[in-house]
Structure formats: C-alpha cells, structure tokens
Amino acid sequence: MPAGTAGWNSIGRARRPPRRQRPARRTDGLLKREFDCGRLRPEHVGQQVTLGGWVHRRRDHGGLAFVDLRDRYGITQIVFDPSTGPKAHDLAGDLRAEWVILVRGEVRLRPPGTANPGLDTGAIEVLAQQLEVVNASETPPFAIDDQVSAGAALRMRHRYLDLRRPGQRAVLELRHRIVKLMRDFLDERGFLEIETPLLIKSTPEGARDFVVPSRLHPGQFYALPQSPQQMKQLLMIAGLDKYFQIAKCFRDEDPRADRSVEFTQLDIEMAFVDREDVIGLVESLYCKIAAALAPEKSFAEPFPRLDYFDCLDRYGTDAPDLRVDLEIRDISDLAADSGFRAFATALAEGGRVRALSIPGCASLTRRQLDDWTELARGRGARGVVWLADREAGYWGPLAKTVPAELLARIAQRLDLGRGDLAGIVADQDSVTNAALDGLRVAAGKHLGMLDQGRLEFCWVTGFPLLEATADGFTFSHNPFCGMPAGTEHTLESDPASAPSLQYDLVCNGWEMGGGSIRIHDADLQRRVFELLGYSSEQIEANFGPMLRAFDFGAPPHGGIATGIDRLVMLLSDNDSIRDVVAFPKTQDGVDLAQSAPGAIAAGQLAELGLRLKD
User: What's the pTM?
Assistant: First the structure.
C-alpha cells in the first residue's frame, strides 16, 4: 500500500492501529492443547480433543461460525454451532485473524461434498464445545499467506509474523533436517562435534573482523571468528583427528547480494588424510542430503572435476553454472588479422579477444542486445561486439570491415550457425572473464537452461597458492593452504606459479564451500607468511601459538567448510540468503526485527575505555 493511503503515515510506514481490547467474555476452565492442527484424521472421529493455534480465517454460514485454526503442523476446521456449544459460539463472533485460541470439541467427518482434499485434515472437522481466547491480535501488516506478497523490509521488521507463513516455516524445517543429517552422517563415521570459541584473537586472514572490546583488559579487543581455522588445526595437533562443527562465522564485509555479515557453515577437519579423502567424504554427504531431502532434483555422481585455469578459460569464473551449456572461445589469433581497432588495442595491451556463441539468438532486438551490453559494461568491459548469422548473411560491425574468408573462420571457431549470435569482448582476462561470465548466465536464463530441478555439482582444483598484487603477493584462499609434495621449491624460483592443494565445491554457479590440505610444517608456513609480506614480529604476534604447536608433532591434515545457508537456499529454490535464516539481516547488516546495530549508553562506553569521536 503506498504512502499517503489511509492507515499510512507520510513516510510510508504503517500507523500503529489502536490496540484491540481482549474480550472479557470467555468460557470457564483452562484448556491445554492435546493435538496439533495437522494430526486429526477420520480414525479420530468421535474423540474429544483440544487444539490450540492461530485463527487463520473465520467465516459465518447458515447460523454457524467456521474457523480455520492454524499452527506449525497444518490447519483444522473448527465449527461453532449454537445448539451444541452456545457460549463458545457466542464468543467465536469476536474472533479475528491471528488471535490465539484453545478449542475443545468432538471430531466428526465433514458433511458429504464438503471435504477439502487440499488439507491433510480435510476429511474431518471439530465441533466446538469450549473456546478460550488466549490472546487477541492487532491486524497484521500483511496476510499470513504464501500467495500474498509483502516488501522484504516489512517482512523482516515483523519476522515473527513472516515465519508463520507455511513457505517460510518449511524452509526452517528443511534447514533443521539438513543439519541433523550432517550431524548423523559424521557421527556415524567417528567424527566429534567440538565447539570452538567465538571470542578469539584478530588475525589477518581475509575480510575485516568484527571486534569486541574487553572491559577487563582496557585497550584490548577480541574478534568474532571469520572461521575456526587455527583452532581446528590445533585440534588436529591435539590428536582429535575427526572434527566437525556447525560454526557461526562473521565477516565485516561491504554489502553484497550473495553475502551476509553473519553466516553458518559446516566446518570439517581430518588428520592423516589427502585431498581425495576430504572430497570423497563431502561428496558422499552432499549426495545423501540431496537424495533424502530434495528427491525431486537430479544430480550426477561422481561430481566432475574442473581445473581452475581451464574453468576460467571456458566459463570466465571459478564457480561455473554447468546447467548453462555454453562455453567461451578464444579468437585472439584470428582477431589479430581482422584490422578491427578495438581488437588491436586490447591485444597490444596484453589482453585477449574472447567470445561466447549463443544459439538461436541472431534475431534479438536492439533493446535486448543493449541490455546485455550494459551488463558486460557493468562488469568492466568497454563494450560487446555482436556478430549474428542471419538469413541475409552475417550481421554486425565485423561483417562490414572483416574479409569474408576471415569472418567465416571466426564463425567456424565459434560454432556459429544460421540463427546464432556471438558476443565478443576484447580486454584483459580479468575483464573478459567477468563480462563473458555475466553474459553466459544471462544467455542461459534467456534460453531456459537454468532448470531448478537440476543440481550441477563440480569440484574445482588446481588453484594457485598465491596471487600477485602491486605490492607483492596475497593468498589465493587462505595462508594455511598446503602444496603438492615436491613443489615447495617454486616458492623460491617462481612464487606466482606455486601450486596449491585447495579445492572448491560448486553447484549451479554458487561456491558451496572450500578447503585444502594444510601446511603442517612450521618452516614452510613461516616462508609462506614471509612471501605474503609479514615481518617476523607480525608472524609471531598473529600466528605464534599455532607455529609453536607445530613444533610438538603436527600430523598431515586437511578439511573444508561448506555454507549451510547457501545449501538451504539451493534446495529450497530461494534466491536470497535472507529467506533461509530465522532472523536475517539486510544487505548492509541491519537487523530490522531487533533494530540492530544500535547506540549504547555512555556509561557502557566508559566501562570499556572507549569514546566516540565527533
């Protein structure tokens, strides 16, 4: 409802309606729920039962009052008849949506022709004899119904109401089952669930930390964990060789649609294992979860393996959506002879000319092509050169300037047939990767390839250990990632080429998790820290305890962390992480239900030895 409409104030927020007074009239006695609202069946006919729940809908017909009573388990129809329960019938006239009531009555079959096959309880109804109003309710700001849309901010502000909707409740039930299956699966294989601290030391391992000031140690701070990385490695050194945890993690990151400042992951670490042991365990777990909890979805076993660099060449990303059967092609050698200025400029600057062929899209409108061009520009490209094979021949800028024989060779390289379209981007790999990855997914969506009934898992391996920066190197994933045996010399001869034992699990274009076989040698770990630019003092301050632990016998070990929020999102066909957690935060980290973050009292700041700057 727009601002300015009756019941809304000038800034679009709903005015608080007058509080409805609780009716004074009630039946005598204190009822207690015996059955939930999804349980009763014809075999219960004739029984006296007590139900409790929320009024989902109320209607009057032929002197009778009908209430659909709802709880977490379902809906049961309650009938109020003045001839069998006059006091209850009288009180039922006051009932409104979302009032909490208790009802006692007799189960009976619905009259012929009135059964509701859409409800599990649709064959029966309860003839009310007693009614107790537990609590009245104000008019909800949105209907408690999956078919009724409401804005995300409004739903988050009233999350306790949003969670009454069957769809939202089903997601949390799915989440519970996923986590329970994870626990049971790992317990059966000898893993121990071990909790690690939430107040830890801040270390430079990736994103910004959330910091917590210490009252007892003025000027000192804890950090909330981005992951339990060092602690789970210490558990391996302690001999607890099979660890897991449903871990809460925190990253003070800038807003991104696919990230949350607070998230939950399945954290696993194992000693005396190699990469195949970890991959095999997690693949078995994910296959079991998908088969048990999303049987309507198809997936292939074993999961395919993709090399990191090959992945970038073919898909433009290290997290490809394999449902999209389109691959990027390199036409740099052909483009070099084209005389096309944009291609020549990119090649002279050390870039490449790469393209994506899109079947059946030669006749897209100019507006559709402009939309895709803007998508590529939003990812850094200077533009997209379009080439189409139409009935009248080739169409696009290249058709006007490139010799016919060379144009035919480009089309052959791209498998461009009659009716097909190609988008060509010329730039540095980082730009062509991002632009063509975005174009590939958009084209896949246009062609109907993004089938939600398919789970296209894959493992990505072959990551570099380090990534070059203007100031030296940074870690590709984390600074604890190990290297294949016999490759340690590359840290001295060519650090940029140093390989890693990192592996990522990807599904439908989402990075589901990542892990590695770890470094378990103190000298090698120190050398990696040095290449990352840490001084001896910084290494000691941030990682000293773990390095000293290595001196007391560290076994080879490795593990993985997989995102539970993203897995629930994928299996429930949700598009947002916010819809798969009980109390989500907005994209910029605000909890609308609790009005957090918020200011704290000056006295609390003083106790912590803090003062806000103007």
Answer: 0.91
